[in-house]
Specification:
mainly alpha
């Protein structure tokens, strides 16, 4: 009997030592497979086995009673335990780092948190804090992403037709660029995924159900302390037992020799202690604080990412994608509402920035084109300056229909007096207004809330009003600087277009009072420029008329009998007619009459009193009455005197 008892003792001893020998290798495998809960359980089991070997006072049958001194005869036991003991810190460290993996399932997250609770003796409240802190690092890493522009982005042109300089960080484009939109969508989705999965995992692991059912981590802790079998519907990885763990070891058959108390071992859990539970109010507070801090950081990152989107279409594409993702997530209603507000506010700010850049670019381009065109006007004849025939489309062009439409449009603009140069100067303003109007229509087409559209218009409108004021200021400054007739002709056409037919002021989105003031001021500027043009033109033609007039000897005046107006007068009237045609677009009877009256007034101020002069005056009187009654009393008096 003693021999049998001794043999049984040796078998027990070998099973204990075998578990210690196998533990390191298996712990490594569990850590590599990220099975931290099983690794923690195996470590705790190995610690109990080691204690059973070295502390005889805790055993029913002592080793010494069988003549075995474990520490003296088997020094390997202590060395092996020293090796196993080193795994505790590794398991805790690896498990803590694994909490950063936001795509882990709620069950895996719960198992990892149980590892920290059992192995590191951390209260569940502290484990929750560790979990949220690790997810914050994951979120911070995802929010640190930056879009790297490619050379195609750097060559993007502004709507005003000028290439951006190397120091211009905010470039706006009318093209829809797929690459930045795709990458910013992915970055946004990743950050949203981190936030959403973290909130969902925290609620699954720590929050009680509506039916007052304990949280997942609490149910697992209760299962550890109970003797009930593993529920069929639950994962065996989470509802772990020592027996199921031992079957995964290489020498599972040998380990069946372990005493029943070891084969049924369960880590100690004090369910009554506050460390084994998280109060619902405390959980809600911690989760809400984390969520608010996360969406605050997320909003900053979104604003930074949106700065790399150069058009409203790009911006709204990312926004629509993010909103769809948010609505499909398992966040609560108030959390979805907060996320939506973040996108709305970030988009509103970026849209206004894009529009401001367009407005600034349009006024700069308008000023540059106006100045360069007026400089060209000093070196070009009025007719050659104003009228340039558009190129005729050739059959060799790939898209003949489009080319023909452009050619037809160019001809139509010329027929209504909209020359290529005039169109080039006004194109920046009109293109800007048209694009912003299209952007606003694109926003409204997405069935957006009226509040968002109203906020966009309200924020943008002061900038549009300022642009109109800058346009008027530029025109007035230019009008004060221009002195040549050709420049005045072109400036009058610009101011006339802006005050009448140009779609700029009606599409730019100003207040009604600003639109009215703009048209009134532009019309007044047009009149002032025309008055200056009239004075310069009449003075120049009269001066040429007097130079061309040949002096007649007094002895010959009586013998000369003119039969009509002098050639000099006809030439002067022809020059005056050409000048008026270059200035007006047709149908401006007042301009013709006023210019003719000024011409007659200045021409009659220094008359030689010859018979030919009387014929000329009679012709002028008849000519001016064809355009209505004479309004100038001084002019009427002079004609009668002549």
């Amino acid at each position: 009997i003693n021999a049998d008892a001794h043999l049984h003792t040796l078998q027990l001893l070998s099973a204990h030592i075998k578990l210690l020998l196998d533990a390191p290798e298996h712990l490594w495998r569990l850590i590599e497979r990220k099975k931290y809960f099983q690794a923690a359980w195996l470590f705790l089991l190995a610690r109990v086995v080691h204690r059973a070997l070295v502390r005889e006072d805790e055993q029913d049958v002592t080793w010494s009673s069988q003549g075995i001194d474990v520490l003296d005869e088997f020094p390997l036991v202590q060395r092996q335990w020293d090796t196993v003991a080193q795994f505790r810190s590794q398991i805790i460290h690896k498990a803590t780092l694994s909490l950063r993996e936001y795509d882990s399932s709620a069950e895996d997250t719960c198992a990892t948190l149980l590892t920290l609770h059992l192995l590191d003796s951390r209260p569940l409240t502290e484990s929750l804090s560790v979990f949220l802190a690790q997810r914050s690092k994951t979120l911070h890493s995802s929010l640190a992403w930056k879009y790297v522009s490619d050379p195609a982005d750097l060559l993007t042109t502004k709507p005003n037709g000028h290439a951006p300089g190397p120091t211009q960080p905010n470039i706006i484009s009318l093209d829809f660029r797929r690459r930045p939109v795709k990458e910013i969508k992915e970055a946004t989705h990743t950050a949203l995924d981190v936030i959403s999965r973290t909130v969902k995992a925290a609620r699954t692991v720590f929050q009680e159900n509506d039916s007052c059912q304990p949280s997942l981590i609490r149910r697992v802790l209760e299962h550890i302390q109970s003797d009930s079998p593993v529920p069929q519907a639950h994962s065996t990885d989470l509802y772990l037992t020592t027996q199921s763990l031992l079957t995964t070891l290489p020498s599972s058959t040998h380990l069946l020799l372990l005493p029943p108390d070891l084969r049924s071992y369960k880590p100690y859990v004090d369910l009554v202690s506050s460390s084994s539970s998280v109060h619902p109010s405390q959980f809600a507070q911690k989760l809400d604080e984390w969520f608010q801090a996360s969406i605050s950081s997320f909003q900053k990152a979104v604003s930074r990412w949106f700065a790399d989107l150069h058009s409203v279409k790009e911006l709204w594409s990312v926004r629509a994608s993010a909103l769809r993702w948010t609505l499909a997530s398992e966040l609560e209603t108030n959390e979805i509402s907060q996320m939506t507000k973040i996108f709305d506010e970030s988009c509103r700010q970026r849209v206004v920035e894009i529009w401001r850049l367009r407005l600034a670019g349009s006024i700069d381009s308008f000023g540059q084109r106006l100045d360069s065109t007026l400089m060209e006007a000093k070196q070009t004849s009025p007719v050659g300056f104003l009228f340039h025939a558009p190129p005729v489309p050739s059959s060799s062009q790939s898209r003949l229909d489009t080319s023909f439409e452009k050619y037809t449009s160019s001809l139509h603009r010329q027929l209504v007096g909209r020359t290529a140069l005039l169109d080039d100067v006004l194109a920046a303003l009109e293109s800007c207004a048209r694009t912003i109007r299209q952007d606003l229509a694109h926003v409204m087409a997405g069935n957006e809330s009226p509040e968002l559209v109203e906020q966009l218009e309200k924020t943008y409108r002061p900038d549009a009003d300022a642009l109109c004021a800058n346009v008027i200021e530029k025109l007035e400054k230019t009008a004060n600087e221009v002195s040549n007739t050709e420049g005045l002709v072109f400036l009058s056409r610009v101011s006339d277009e802006l005050s009448t037919t140009s779609p700029f002021i009606s599409e730019i989105g100003c207040q009604t009072c600003v639109v009215q003031d703009f048209r009134k001021t532009a019309a007044a500027l047009h009149k002032r420029v025309v008055d200056r043009w009239r004075a310069n033109t009449v003075s120049s033609i009269v001066r040429e008329h007097r130079i061309a007039r040949r002096p007649i000897h007094p002895a010959l005046r009586a013998s000369l009998k003119p039969s009509g107006p002098s050639p000099q007068l006809v030439q002067s009237l022809l020059a005056l007619s050409i000048s008026i045609q270059e200035l007006q677009r047709g149908g401006q009877q007042r301009l013709v009459k006023a210019t003719l009256e000024d011409f007659i007034t200045e021409l009659t101020s220094d008359d030689e009193g010859s018979l030919q002069s009387l014929y000329d005056m009679a012709f002028l009187q008849k000519l001016v009455t064809l355009h209505g009654e004479v309004q100038d009393e001084l002019l009427e008096k002079r004609l009668r005197e002549k």
